[in-house]
Amino acid sequence: MRNVSINSFGGPEVLRIADRPTYRGDETKVRVDVEACGLNWLDVAVRSGHSGPGIRLPKKFPHVMGADAAGRIGALGMDARSDLRIGDRVVVYPGLSCGECQFCRIGETSMCPKFELLGEDTDGVQQEEIWVDPRNVAMVPQGLTTEEAAAIPVAFTTAWNLIISAGAVRVGEKVLVVGASGGVATAAIQLAVSAGAVVWAGTRSPDIFARSLNALGVSELFDTSTPNWSTFVADLTDGCGVDVVVDPVGAATWKESLRSLRPGGRLVACGASSGDDPGISIRELYQAHKRIIGAPLGGLQSFRSVVDTIATHQIHPVIDRVVPMEDVHDAHNAIETSNRMGKVVMRIDNS
Predict the structure, then answer these.
(1) Same structural domain for residues 132 and 270?
(2) What is the Cα 70 distance to its own chain's centre?
(3) In this structure, are residues 37 and 343 in contact, taking their beta carbons and an 8 Å threshold?
(4) Is residue 221, in this structure, part of any structural domain at all?
(5) Under 8 Å between Cβ of 239 and 260
(6) Does 161 fall in a domain?
(7) Contact 153, 92 (CB under 8 A)
(8) Cα separation of 73 and 301, whole Å?
(9) pLDDT at 137
(10) How many angstroms separate the CA atoms of 297 and 43, rounded?
(11) What's the domain range around 43?
C-alpha cells in the first residue's frame, strides 16, 4: 500500500513515496479507499518538525503524512455502526477524540483533552487505504468532485469555527480576511459571503489574485505588503474599522489586523505560519474594547455543519492545482511560497 511518509524532519526532500503491507482495521471502523488528499500548512509544519506551544509532533517514524482525504467506502467492519455502503463517495474528518468527555458529548471534539489529528500526532491519510470511525465520515455533497471534497476537512472546518462558531459573524457585518489566497482564507471568504457579511480581503499579491477573489464575493482588496495598510481600511470606514478580521497568518499581520478593527471588533485567529510573537500593544487592544478569539480546527459537529452548508449553498472549494502523488515535493514548495490561490490537492492512485 503506497503512501507519502517521512523518516526524519527536514525540507521537502525528506518526503518519500513508500510502501507497506495492507492491513485490516478495527471491526468497528470502515475502510476508505483514498482518491484525493488536500494539503495544508499543517503538512509543512509536521514535515519540518516545527515545535512550540500548540504544536504536536509525530509519535514515531516512519510517519504517514496528511489530514485531508476523500474517496470511496471500500469495506465495512463487521461491528461498524453505519448506514454507509460500499462505493459511497465520502470525505473524512481528521480529528480523533475520546468520545466521552463533556466536549465530545456536544460535538466539540477538537476541545477534547485527548484530541489528536491524523497526519500530526498519528499516521495520516496520504495512503491508498485508511480505516476510520464511521462517525468521522460524511457523504460528499452532490455536485462536488473528489478533489473538491478533499479540500474540505481542515480548511472548511477551521473556517466554520472562524466565521460561525467562534467568530459569530452576523448579516451585514464587515469581515476582513487576510492571507486571502490561502486554503483556510478562501473557505472563510466563501462562508462569510454565504452568512450575509460584507467581505474584504488582504493579500501580498492583489494584482495576481484580484479577479479570483472578486469572483468569490470580495468587494474590497488591500495590499498587505504595504506598510500601515490598516490606514486604507480606516479610510473606507470613516475611521471606524471593520467588525471582524480573520487572520490565519500570524505575526506578520496581527498589528495591522488589530488596527483595522472598529472599537469592540474581534480578531479571529487560526494560524501563525509567519510566527507566533506579534509584539502587539496590550493597551491598544483593551482601550478600544477589541477582542482576540482563538479558532483552530472545529470539532466533529462543525465538520458536519459545514458539509451541510456546502451542499445547501452549492459552495465549491477553491482548488489551485491537482498533482499526482509523485509531485508531493512540488506541492509542499507551492504551500511554503504561498504561490497559489486556494488548496493544493494530491491524487492518490489506488488502482
Answers:
(1) no
(2) 14
(3) no
(4) yes
(5) no
(6) no
(7) yes
(8) 21
(9) 98
(10) 14
(11) 2-152+298-347
